[in-house]
Amino acid sequence: MTDTVRPSGDSSVTEVARGRGIAAWRQIADEIEADIRAGRLGPGMQLPTESQLAVRFAVNRHTVRRSLAELAARGLVRATQGRGTFVEDRPIPYPIGARTRFSENVSRAGREAGGKLLDAYPTSADRQVAAALGIDEGAPVVRMDTVRYADGTPISLGSAYFPLPRFSGLIEAYRSFDTLTAALEACGVADYRRHETRISARPAGAEEATRLDLAPGRLLLTVDSINVDIEGQPIQFTRAAFSADRTELVIGS
Question: Would you say residue 13 has pLDDT above 60?
């Protein structure tokens, strides 16, 4: 037997086949994916609610929920708490070169940059942080944890480290200016450049997936970087994780 339904995204008629070896949730996910690939559901568009999709496809909400989870696992949609499910935007080209600035990169891609300070506190440098900043292991540093957005969509998480006492006023400056470049300038760093970048990849952990509105296990591009001031002195070491579904790292020559 078959159920006649309307797909999400156009007015044509399609069918969810019963008893033919393909689960209903997978058929629905495939149908919505086809709408996305064909452009009937464009980047950033909100999908109908679970209830609306359940009516449209004549299935229960559990089946719809599994379909949406499958689409999220494919990197095609993202579910945002309290707002709904949206088609993923196209990946943002994110250049990495001598001058790598998050806000500039996102704005250049035609998106609105944003960020949120998750936590900030003094701590001790571990071996990797110390080596990157050219200080002793255990030396005092400021750690700042942030999440960065493009058009309200989270695209990266980062933990940045700055040596003390040079950057003892950095946290207050960041909270005042809301951008790292301005906060560093307030601490006496007129300009800085990228000295080193190391890129790898791994699956997202549970907390990272929640922070980035990703399905658990989606791929992250991890970026460890060192910035130096105009005299070549290391001022910042950052461990960042970018959603591979939402960013395309571009290495400049």
Answer: no
User: 90 pLDDT exceeds 90?
Assistant: no
pLDDT number for residue 78? 85
pLDDT confidence of residue 14:
54
* pLDDT score for 19: 62
Distance of alpha carbon 123 from the chain centroid: 26
**What is residue 13's DSSP assignment?**
-
Lowest mean pLDDT among 118-127, 205-214, 222-231: 205-214
Structure token pair of residue 86: 């949206």
N-to-C CA span, the chain:
59
Find out whether 103 and 128 touch, Cβ atoms under 8 Å.
Answer: no
Helix (H) or strand (E) holding 117: strand 113-124
Residue span(s) of the chain under CATH 3.40.1410.10 come to 92-251
DSSP, res 246: T
CATH of domain 2-87: 1.10.10.10
Which is nearest to 2 in space by CA: 55, 59, 52, 54?
59
Residue 12 CA to residue 9 CA, distance in Å, equals 9
The topology under which CATH files domain 92-251 is: Chorismate lyase (3.40.1410)
Torsion sign, CA atoms 79, 85, 86, 88? positive
